[in-house]
Amino acid sequence: MPEVIRHIAAMRTRLAQVRHLEMLKTAPSRSRLGNSLKASGIGFVPTMGALHAGHGALMDAARSECDVVVASVFVNPTQFNNKEDYERYGRNLDADVAFCGIHGVNVVFAPEVEEMYPANRDVFVEIPGVSEGLCGAFRPGHFRGVATVVTKLFNIVQPDIAYFGEKDAQQLAVIRRLVAGLNMPITIVGVPTVRDSDGLALSSRNERLTREDRQRAPLLYRALEAARREIENGVTDAGRIRARGLEVLAQEPSIRVEYFEVVDAESMQPVTRVAGRVCIAAAIWLDGVRLIDNVVSS
After folding, report:
1. For the chain, what are the domain ranges?
2. What is the average pLDDT across 225-232?
3. Cα angle vertex 27, ends 18, 78, to 5°?
4. Which of 40, 72, 148, 226 could make a disulfide contact with 109, Cβ separation 3.0–4.6 Å?
């Protein structure tokens, strides 16, 4: 039996016995998965840390449905196309581990880069089609990095169910396609976006907003909702729906729109007319901080 298979087998024999929070940093010590799991088994929440209530909702969903909950905290360098953005990403492992404990996580996997990428970074996973356009058009290589690291994490943790936020709609679509395309025996659960009282979607990047930009940021959600109301009012022309959202964003000159699109909710490809379930997705910039959000209309 290959060494990695022995590792996974041992890991799955022991994790059910874990009923307190543990933090692990290396693959060999992850022998914690269990022999008395329920059918729901192991729930997994992959994160890049800087945890907030949105991540908490993922962990709470996993806790309510699974016997054991594993969360990863790993800032993945291969999904950043901007080195400065990678270096500025928030890191506070002690706070993240404490947060995981509050939300019932059993095991936190927090590897170093060398653990996840032990050799030359020359093996990647790419998901064509669904990863193109939207964020994929403006962040070259981003979804290749996402698909690669999630594949690695899935191979290490061997979850039964994995939880992702619906705020990152394109990422969720990529992960669903990844699991289906590679016949992974994992159920992917999308958890609704958690928002502040003014509608702004929770994001680790919100902490980088100035006080003034934090007041402007909810306009993104208002623009998406205005576009969705067009659909609810019977408008099917995607150009008109898009124009309504852009009209709302134009109220704030400091907002730079990266994209505002109406796409098929499954394929993430642009539509010209609404004839089913669509996702209205947008990315904006406020003084160097990039925010994304989306709403779905069926």
Report:
1. 3-191, 204-297
2. 98
3. 120
4. 72
Phi, psi at residue 109, to the nearest 5°?
-100, 115
Q: Is 77's pLDDT higher than 60?
A: yes
User: Is 176 strand, coil or helix?
Assistant: helix
Q: Which amino acid is at 23?
A: M
Q: What b/e sequence results for 81-99 when a residue is b if at least 16 CB atoms lie within 10 Å of its CB, and e otherwise?
A: eeeeeeeebbeeeeebbeb
Active site residue 7: no
Catalytic residue among 7, 20, 52, 55: 55
- CA gap 262, 281 in Å, rounded: 7
Give the three-class secondary structure for 232.
helix
Q: Can you name the CATH fold of 3-191?
A: Rossmann fold (3.40.50)
Architecture of domain 204-297: 2-Layer Sandwich (3.30)
